[in-house]
Fold these 2 entries.
Entry 1:
Amino acid sequence: MLRANLQEKHVFLNYVGHIAFMAGKTCESIPLGFPATVNSLLSELDHLYPGIRNMFFSADDSFAVARGIILRRKTSSISITDPEFELLPGDVVTLW
Amino acid sequence: MFGWKGRILRVDLTKNSVSAEELPEEWKQLFLGCRGINDVILWKEAPPLCGPFEDKNPLIFGTGPLEGTPVGMGRISIQTKHPQRLIGEGGAGGQWGPELKFAGYDFIVVSGRAPSPVYLYISDHKAELRQADHLWGKTVKEKINLLESEIRLPVQIACIGPGGERLIADAKVIFTGDHAGGRGCGTIMGFKNLAAIVVHGTGSVFVKDPQRFEKAYRTFRKLLDLRTSTDPYVPSWSFMSANMLPTIFNENGWLHAYNAQKGSIESFIRGEEYIANYVDGPHACFCCPFPACGRHFTVRGGQYGGASGNEREGGFGLVGAVAGITSWPVLLKFRELCTEAGVDEFMIAYTIGWAMECYEKGILTKNETDGLDLRFGNEEAFIRLVEKIIAREGIGDLLARGSQEASKILGRGSDYFLLTIKGRELEVMPQRGGYQMALALAVCEAGPDHTRWYPPYPPNPASIPGDLELPFDPALAFQMRNPQDKGRLVKWLYDSRAILESLPTCVFVIRGTLGIDMRPWYDLFISATGADCSFSDFLRIGERIVNLERCFIVREGFRRSHDSLPRRMLEDPIPDRQIPPIGNYFQPMLDEYYNCRGWTNNGIPRQETLSRLGLEFAISEIQRSENPC
């Protein structure tokens, strides 16, 4: 039961290309406090991999202009263009 | 002369003769070079009465004014009338194109057919045909090794493998370093008994205004800086090239998994795994700013241990999805087999994917597959079938014709599972996941060639400079599954890429605003050549090239009905990502494309369109053309 609860509060991450080099791995699952957004996820990741958040915000604070984020939720995928997009437990987020 | 060398090498294989002629000034002004000038040669020398497998069908190797400069990236264009009567055209990188310029030629036009195998040897303004019986039947690697040891000079080699010799559909030309291009051109080269073209050149390419050219080149490189580029592909490409695509395609549901029945595969290959375990080092094209784009690979140990080669489209691993293959060693063995035989990975993999679906649905039986269990994901059967196709052995002889021809012979409703457009197999690009890609593939004059409109999207609208006037709305065009504005976007993609492929440069460096702002390219062109060409004339060249290509296939009988998509893309959803079929969205997108092109609703350029573009010479032939294929 405890394991199930933990899984429910995780998001799964794919790191691709240069992001994988930054993270030193290609995928992982991390716990996240919900409600959570893409923005808060990136802040959380920035503690683990300093500088990663800045990869997704340009100097004028535009979001994901020069990077890609794909979100998969069950059987649908979308490209994320809004940093305040709300995440749900179990989401698969691909950063590249 | 600046940029161009100004010379065409004419080779008549029937007469066993070579000669040089001047490159007409008018062609340079109207069609630039490379793909554009290849088009006008093909238009003039391959009329409808000339079948693909006739001696007169020319095989053209073209470079352009920026070839031999750092912008050219070694790109060349190979062109012929394709066995499906399309424009058989494909580009390749490497070092062969610059070497041809350094040897003093912009173009080689090969006509006729040799009675026995020959190869063409070019060395600094001199050329001759040599007997090549000893090369015939050899793999690409063997041919190149034999020629290098025979000539004992630094040379660049273009050759065919056994695939071209055996007239396998869509066979390619392979260059030194395993650079490859020209789907179908290798087949015609094999028909002509031309085994190879060996080039040795010690000359140079001069630019008109070196200081201005250097400044323009620095601007160009700055736009590709991985720290400041506005394109997410730039940093990814800088590190690992197309190898990020398997994960991106899989997450988006864009794979043609199991012959496009699905869009994703659980535990699909990852590019990072390939880089970590199989790559020995980089292997780039001439002056490429993305040296990670090409690599040498080796499989160490295991069933396919020893497989090795060079590749620069790590995305080739994506084709495994169509047959359900998710193992790098298997895919690298596949790559090695295809390169050594000079056959096309897309044609082979998609034809096998089609055969696998036919097998699983009971249309093909085990008796007809020479006992192979052609279930999706059967790695041994996959590799064995590739070998059989290359050898044209058993069922391999049927599949060596390509899936569409094989389906015509097999019948039994197998055509429903074809993933072909105008008779040619797809090249991994998604359709249901990106409507601009669907439209662009459908209307392509060379079959579903993804490089003629690549990259397929504008940059994120938020990154586009406000002073840039575009003929499409980037906010709408950026939306992948919104049919609006896709016609205008696709027209822009085709026209701009036609210019760039005629300069030439590599489509994979057209990143960020370089894909939508043609001013840096114009500056490079003018500073290199000193050509008397306004910016608006420069832009019009691309539209002219695409219209001439359209005229070519219209003259061969192609019409609106051929500008279509595989039925699966129009009718079937991608169930694992809830992506609907394109359905009724397709025809309005096609209407918009034809309208903004100035074509009839049957896909034929109007007289006023051709006049506006200086293509009056094509008008009478288009009006006479009443022979739908």
Entry 2:
Amino acid sequence: MARKDELGRAGEAIAARYLERAGLVIVDRNWRCAAGEIDLVALDGAELAFVEVKTRSTLAFGHPFEAITAGKHARMRRLAAAWCAAHPGAYAIRIDAVAVIAPFGAAPSIEHLKRVA
Amino acid sequence: MAVGRTHAVSLLGLDGAIVEIEADISAQLPKVVIIGLPDAALGEAEHRVRAASVNSGCGFTHHRLTVNLSPASLPKHGSGFDLGIALAAFAADGAVNQDSIGRVVHIGELGLDGRLRPIPGVLPAVLAAARAGFETVMVPAGNADEAALVPGIRVVGVASLRDAVIWHGGRLEPQPVEPLIPPTTGEPDRDRLDLAEVIGNPDAIEAMQVAAAGGHHVFLLGPPGAGKTMLASRLPGLLPDLEPDAALEVSCVRSLAGLPVGASLATRPPLEAPHHTATPAALIGGGSSHIRPGAAARANHGVLFLDEAPEFQSTALDALRQPLESGVISIHRANAVARFPGRFQLVLAANPCPCGQYGARDSECTCAPYSRRRYLQRLSGPLLDRIDIQLRVQRITAAQLRASEAAERVSTAQARARVMAARSAASSRLAATPWSLNAHVPGSFLRSPAMRLHPSVTAPLDRALERGGLTMRGYDRVLRVAWTVADLAGADRPTADHLGQALYLRKALSS
């Protein structure tokens, strides 16, 4: 596995722990379909959150949130719809973003934005 | 997350309006939204502010930044809002003191490295801030001298965004940078043009002094090489120094036009000599979203010289009629009306015909009578109506050249002293009236019982009126010029001689 993918996996694990500690229940991880992959699906009370996790080891190339572009937004909406189609039921849904800044050998800092799309 | 607030100035013509800049940071993905009718340059502030903030070590928010420019309906243009936007964003982030930036008006464009770039129009903008009651204004270091010309407001010049943040209580170490200074273009020193250099043509030299003393508009008619341009370019030198208010107005227009202003107010009247291909917009000002001053506004309190006047577009010439009448240039656009001051002294120069030789003693005109007539008809009657002095200048002959070597010539300094004495005589006579220059006095006032001249003095004029050689408007013009001639001569009232001289000064077109 390439180092950037390793960092991404690690970031997703950090984000999942963070969300669980914040009281969310992780429903699904790395759910894949033809349109792409959803990093995390978590239940926040009655609301279902589709979470995009972005991880960076430094801020030298910008903040992780800056990597969430308009195209990424649109894909997350399509993926959320695909997940709902694959798991029939009635949900209130939202799309969240989590930024993990994980410098090597230091504690990661995490930021969670709700309803970004 | 809070709202940061500060102020900037939006200019429309020479009038500045205070604009409140609000910046709000909300928990959303990074994005900068600028609302409140920004133009293209202002819309691009996002990129300048972001790069400047990061490169000057101040950091930029990773969340959504909404910048509102209020009043929202007032169109705003230019890059002078960058500094205010950056500081309001920092205040929303808690990096600078909100109370501190809320009291200050910020004007300045940011470079990508975080340095502040000088911008045009700082002088009128600072003037507007002072009039709105602000006590402090922050401007780029390169504009600090210019901003300091406005009395009654504290000017803080900063070289970089980092310095601005430190001034407002941000915890950063100062980092000295090379401030950006506006380029100073060396302008020719017009005052070095001396009236004594004009050889021969004593009538024309006297006429220029009359024009300067009374503020009369001048029309010079003569063949090429007669010295029309030479005479006209020496007229500003004859005018007295600008009054403080006028100096501020002249410097404001220069600042707005992007011309260097320097560390002191302009004290000498400006000269503008646009080329005859100038469009109406170039002459009086124009533009759609950002309305810029034209040559007439830049010539405010000075001289507007139109060489080869019949070659100008007639629409361009007639656009001058409004400022000649009211002293104000208003430019109407769908979304706004911009006003510029337009109290200039007009000097028109023209050849008598397309080939230029008509009436010259030493050469033959090759123009058909018809084309000759058409040529000067391009100057519309209403425009010529407003010109008191219409003078024919001739090429000098070898005999005149020899004679003038012996004769004493008037220098600019002597002429200006005469002009100032005449002007003070006129203004003390007109102290109780709304006018201060003879050129502005209406004929009805000059013909009123208090001012009316003795019939023996006005006899030649009355005869000309009876014969139809002179219209009533022309009659008034001669009277106005006669008063100026009398002021120059130090006389209390015009005599028959002064009147005769005034008649001579308007005979270019009638002869």
